[in-house]
Amino acid sequence: MTAPELVSKSRCFHGEVHKYMHQSTATQSKMTFNIYLPDAALTGKEKVPVLYYLSGLTCNEDNMITKGGALAHLSKHQIALVTPDTSPRSCGIPGESDDWELGTGAGFYVDATQEKWSRHYNMYTYVHQELQDLVKEHFAVDALRTSVFGHSMGGHGALMLALRNPGHYRSVSGFAPICHPSTSEWGRKQFTEYLGKDEELWARYDATELVKQYEGERLPILIDQGADDPFYKSKQLQPSHFVIATESSRRNVVLENRVQPGYDHSYWFVQSFMESHIEFHAKHLKQ
Ligand SMILES: N[C@@H](CCC(=O)N[C@@H](CS)C(=O)NCC(=O)O)C(=O)O
């Protein structure tokens, strides 16, 4: 695997934030990501646990790492953070950037099967496999201690990745995750476009459908949802569907679901609960 190309490097909270670009096999395009490495990982003294964060619609690799308020807490726990982009970019697909809910910035963490998108839009393989292989090879992270979290579309991506791959992620959490994409406009629109009309295939990427079938190792899950989030109110997120599916199927998942009065969908909300999510992951990553 060719080494990623360093684009920039900045010191921050007793560690460094690096931005890299690399040619991806999964997406057949250049991809960028940021990685925060605490000093222990930079000196090579020890391999540190690693958290992957998946962003929401319209985001790139920078939104969370610049305004999520995560780095001080990651430094305290000596955990690395990887923030990938949310889609391939500038692939030459007709209309790829015309709609903020589709294409650029909206990859939905699936492997597209529809011809228009299938060459490049393979974000599932990219974030779950290719990027993690690359990070493991080039940085001092302990891949056996990996967890995943995310926001909105990325919160769903995190839940879906963890439920599809029992034992791979120690813990998973979401800030206002889309929870049942087969039943909400955010989800149906993108699944139809990327995966076609076969709803059985959708179910393999839908966190609520996946939790009904989960047979893996014990999976700790934390969800925070702002009560004043307009996308929650308009039923794009549907956390209650996920809660009911979890409770009724009695699967090997331990879910803490919290609704936070007064908070909306923005990074003001995300940064308000970031410390609590990192404490949650640190507990499981250090066991
Ligand atoms: N552009 C949309 C909002 C999209 C949105 O809220 N995106 C969330 C993720 S779903 C986000 O994190 N946006 C980027 C940011 O706040 O930095 C609108 O105008 O309603």
From TrEMBL:
Kindly identify the residues recorded as the active site: S152, D229, H265
Entry-linked Pfam families: Esterase
Gene Ontology biological process:
formaldehyde catabolic process
Compartment(s) of residence: Cytoplasm
List the GO terms this entry assigns under cellular component, sorted alphabetically.
cytosol
Tell me its EC number(s), please.
3.1.2.12
Highest taxon in the source lineage: Eukaryota
Which GO molecular function annotations are given, in alphabetical order? carboxylic ester hydrolase activity; S-formylglutathione hydrolase activity
List the keywords (alphabetical): Cytoplasm, Hydrolase, Serine esterase
Q: Which InterPro entries match?
A: AB_hydrolase_fold, Esterase-like, S-formylglutathione_hydrol
The catalysed reaction is:
S-formylglutathione + H2O = formate + glutathione + H(+)
The stretch of residues making up the signal peptide is none
Similarity-based family? Belongs to the esterase D family.
Q: What does this protein do?
A: Serine hydrolase involved in the detoxification of formaldehyde.
Kindly provide the name given to this protein in its UniProt entry.
S-formylglutathione hydrolase
